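Lecture notes, unit on protein representations.

Consider one protein chain, 115 amino acids long.
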Amino acid sequence: EPDTLKSIISRQIEAFRTNDAPAAFGFASQQLQTMFRSPDRYMEMVRRQYSPVFRPDKFSFGQTSLQSTGRPVQIVTIADQRGRTWTATYVFEQHRDGSWRIAAVHLEKLAGSSA
């Protein structure tokens, strides 16, 4: 379901860009929602620890695959507002209602990316 995963990522990034904390929080897994307890706390964590995801200059989708656990993974290349390039690996999980949510994002700055 790559199109579904890409749509979720795009909609969450748009929610970050427009400071729509409840919408951004709604795309997070139940575990993340329990951990951060409020949309504002979640938004602040993303702003501080995942700034390329929070305010990307641009982004593009790469490969979609499955982890050994069966969880879908979507690769996203992100250019941040400082001109640096990152790879974001989004890990998804499916909830009981059938919806997909973001369970984790792993960021890695690409070698040779300038500041």
